[in-house]
Specification:
By secondary structure, the chain is α/β, with parallel strands linked by helices. The protein has 3 domains: 1-29, no CATH class; 38-179, Enolase-like, domain 1 (2-Layer Sandwich), CATH 3.30.390.10; 182-445, Alpha-Beta Barrel (TIM Barrel). The chain is built from 17 helices and 12 strands. A hairpin with a 4-residue loop joins strand 2 (57-70) and strand 3 (75-81). Helix 4 packs across helix 6 (149-170). Residues 1-16 and 23-27 have low confidence and may be disordered.
Length: 457
């Protein structure tokens, strides 16, 4: 049996057995090694309109980091939005907000040193090489031996994005799909001309703002649950918040769903310690009549919780607990039936592997936000535009919430190289994507004068 046939047959067996662990190694044509000779980094602090609550904590600002990787002939600038609270909630409360951000930025600097010493054929290989050593370094720097890997991956996003752009330049690639190594293309071979916008509702968002958004056409409402306090206090707050939201929205209608009702999605960011607590919340949703509108729940349980969730009566998605293909497979075995992709939090390189596994097992994917800046929205949108349409929706789905949370959002928008393009704006709850969008890949290959200036020197 030749190699091509083996890979094909292995993929076929995985489709028949969704929990079979991948054993094959894909062989792809060797690309010339990319050697980074020079690096540069900087960051900006962006204030939030109000404390942004999730995972039982609150953010008041988000650091926007930018790095530049330069080879002999080319360079690439990658961006990231740091979220220490997302990366490791326990670490977030151990340090001041500024202190936690400084640690993550210092880790990005450590990664840049590693990149200069690691020639790579593609960014996926690069991340695989530097990740283990950097994880040990991250634990040493933070003093936290059980540091969540999401902290490291968040620190690597700007480095990874810069590596992809440098890799594309070195290989003459000018399109997002063309840039993807062959093994990952099938999972991202679709072209969604619409991507549904998931409107996020944080703990403190006034209901009046939510009602206004629905009146403007937003129809997927993503509700942050897992509020601060003990498990009992959290549950009471979450139930009260759902009652408040459903009471305000239950009579609204939309043309985007079969029954005309709005869609609710829930995101607990792993705050629920036991399935029993989650089931009590869902029972409350049934009592108030909100349950039929719940499309799915993102990461309700702590990642160390191994309870099966296939009997909850609603689709459960995996987010924070998925660091790689192994942990994704583990969640599938526990009854999870949705993968929440987060390339803007976990690197595009890691996300491609998870998207491939989900595609091979016919598990739908949606794209979640990290309250990222406008350019990073289009890195995320490139994935949302190319994953298989969500079942029953005939479009991709993604969350973005920067416009509702940053003080200087309009200024941040002006830094996008395609600022003002129709596909950067939401129209009645959806991003409408035309051929220009796909031809330009959302503008991610185009230079931003602001970030070029930020990284001079």
């Amino acid at each position: 049996m030749d190699r091509r046939t083996f890979v094909k047959n292995t993929a076929a067996m995985a489709a028949l057995n969704p929990f079979m662990e991948r054993k094959e190694v894909f062989i792809t044509p060797k690309a010339p090694l990319v050697k980074v000779n020079h690096t540069q980094s900087n960051f900006e602090r962006e204030k939030l309109l109000r404390p942004f609550g999730f995972k039982g904590g609150y953010l008041t600002e988000l650091w926007q980091t930018a790095v530049k990787l330069q080879s002999e002939k080319y360079s690439g600038i990658g961006l990231a939005t740091q979220s220490v609270l997302y990366g490791d909630a326990d670490l977030f409360v151990r340090y001041s907000e500024t202190g936690g951000n400084a640690l993550m930025y210092a880790l990005t600097e450590k990664a840049l040193q590693q990149v200069k010493e690691t020639p790579f054929s593609d960014p996926v290989t690069l991340m695989d090489k530097i990740h283990p050593g950097l994880y040990e370094e991250a634990k040493r720097m933070t003093g936290k031996r059980d540091l969540n890997e999401n902290f490291l991956m968040n620190a690597l996003v700007s480095v990874d994005n810069a590596a992809w752009l440098l890799y594309a330049a070195e290989n003459g690639l000018e399109n997002f799909y063309d840039m993807l190594p062959e093994p990952y293309k099938p999972a991202l071979s679709y072209k969604n001309n619409k991507v549904a916008f998931m409107f996020q509702v944080s703990y403190g968002m006034p209901v009046e703002e939510l009602v206004k958004a629905v009146e403007e056409g937003y129809f997927i409402i993503k509700i942050k649950t897992g509020q601060p306090g003990t498990q009992s206090e959290m549950l009471q707050k979450d139930m009260a918040r759902l009652s408040q939201i459903h009471q305000a929205l239950k009579d609204f209608r939309t043309n985007h769903t079969p029954d005309g009702k709005l869609i609710y999605t829930l995101d607990a960011n792993a705050r629920y310690e036991k399935k029993e607590t989650l089931l009590r919340y869902l029972d409350h949703a049934r009592v108030i009549g909100a349950f039929p509108q719940i499309l799915f729940i993102e990461e309700p349980l702590n990642e160390n919780n191994s309870e099966d969730v296939s009997d909850t009566g609603v689709r459960i998605g995996a987010d924070e607990s998925v660091h790689d293909e192994r942990t994704a497979l583990q969640r599938l075995q526990q009854g999870y039936r949705l993968m929440v992709l987060k390339g803007i939090a976990k690197t595009l390189s890691k996300t491609l592997k998870i998207a491939r596994l989900a595609h091979e097992r016919n598990v739908p994917c949606i794209l979640a936000d990290l309250t990222v800046n406008p350019i990073l929205i289009d890195w995320n949108k490139n994935l949302a535009a190319r994953v298989k349409p969500f079942p029953g929706m005939d479009m991709g789905m993604m969350e973005t919430n920067g416009d509702a949370n940053y003080v200087h959002w309009k200024t941040m928008q002006s830094r996008h190289p395609a600022a003002g393009a129709p596909w950067t704006r939401v129209n009645k709850g959806v991003f409408e994507l035309d051929e220009e969008y796909f031809n330009r890949s959302g503008g991610i290959f185009e230079k931003s004068t602001h970030y070029e200036e930020l990284l001079k020197g």
